Amino acid sequence: MRFNNIALAATAVVSVTAARPSDTPICDYYTTALLKNNTAKNQLTLLTLLVNTVVIGNYTEPNVGIKVPGILAAGKVNDTEVNLLPYFSGELASTNRGGKMGVAVNFLDGGGAAPLMKNKAANDETSDQYFLLTHLYQFFGSLLGCSEQGMAGFDAYKAQSSMYKVHKFMDLDYYQVTYFVTQVGLAAASFGVAEDDIKAVAMALNSIFNVRCAPATTAIKAQGAQLQSICIDKSCPLAKDGVCSKYDTPIEPKNATASGDESSASASMASGTATATGTSATTEASATTTGGATAMGLSWAAAAVGFAAFML
Ligand code: HEM
Ligand SMILES: *[C@@H]1O[C@H](CO)[C@@H](O)[C@H](O)[C@H]1NC(C)=O
Ligand SMILES: *[C@@H]1O[C@H](CO)[C@@H](O)[C@H](O)[C@H]1NC(C)=O
Ligand SMILES: *[C@@H]1O[C@H](CO)[C@@H](O)[C@H](O)[C@H]1NC(C)=O
Ligand SMILES: *[C@@H]1O[C@H](CO)[C@@H](O)[C@H](O)[C@H]1NC(C)=O
User: Fold this and answer.
1) Taking the model in full, what pTM does it have?
2) Which domain holds residue 57?
3) Probe target for ligand 4 pocket from 76, 78, 175, 206, with the most ligand atoms within 8 Å of CB
4) Which among 163, 182, 164, 175 has a CA at the least distance from the CA of 71?
5) Inside any domain, residue 310
6) Domain contains 208
7) Cβ 67 under 6 angstroms from ligand 3
8) Domain tally for the chain?
9) What phi and psi values does residue 206 have, to the nearest 5 degrees?
10) In terms of CB atoms within 10 Å, which of 41, 127, 136, 304 comes out highest?
11) Residue 309 belongs to a domain
């Protein structure tokens, strides 16, 4: 997939930016503004750009001046250090594969950052990285209301329905989940999404996933009400009408490399670029991205700047 060939609707962007009509989903509005035709394929493109930026930080060139470290980069929330990379690299036995404890899985096994910088999910279609990224495109597409999702070109989300179950062995705290949500907001801002829309998305994410003991809630309509708390540590705010009895006592994930099983640790990030190593990194540290970044072309820049000017 090459996005630098896409004709972006620079002039349309500026004229439709005044305000998003409340009956137009965020997904459709920004697909139209940035990619013009509101097709399933373009909606997937929008979600690919957004999610890849959330994961590895801003990588599109040129950009509008908003730096996104990405969730693989260590950073801080207030004064608390956060480093999510070990949950994705296989360093921690934190993945739920149905057992009583977490197992270590390297989610960077499809080429790591390099394919993401080419607006792809992975170098293949069989890796854990491929399934994680494509599921994220689909899940967030649904949260953002993509009207064409489910048509050819953008599949509906049909993976795990309970975000609690997916994340339960990670034992995530308020700072970690807040860091993730912050990266979503920064990534959206880097593409010119309006502040009100970013706030609405952050509020939804925080209220559904960044609280502990949340009662069963519908995130994906077809999947019905499910336990959705991703934040399960004591530091997490208690959900309104919390049902702690439905949640197991959190268990801290074990370090898979310390016990001598180094097979899946860190692996493919080495092959270039977007690493986020180093415990002393702050939000200044970025998950970037060197020469290989995709040139988005002048019309993209113009479109994005149009948005950013409105927002800032
Ligand atoms: C609002 C916050 C978040 C949302 C909405 C979210 C959503 C998701 C979704 C939809 C999946 C795919 C599930 C599937 O393939 O069935 C997933 C997987 C995953 N998430 Fe999150 N996530 C959030 C926060 C976090 C945080 C803070 C971490 C920290 C490390 C994290 C780590 C992971 C990992 C490692 C996986 C792969 C798990 C697996 O395949 O079993 N997520 N997440
Ligand atoms: C938008 O879609 C229409 C109908 O499919 C097509 O004719 C047109 O060329 C597309 N425009 C762009 C910019 O892709
Ligand atoms: C990310 O954004 C920052 C701020 O605009 C910029 O300095 C940096 O060069 C960008 N990184 C890439 C790879 O585009
Ligand atoms: C960070 O500090 C601000 C200001 O004190 C506070 O409102 C916010 O809840 C804090 N965030 C976290 C994740 O603790
Ligand atoms: C896991 O153990 C290794 C080796 O002792 C150590 O370098 C690493 O920091 C540990 N990782 C975590 C997340 O605790």
Assistant:
1) 0.85
2) 3-303
3) 78
4) 182
5) no
6) yes
7) yes
8) 1
9) -65, -40
10) 304
11) no
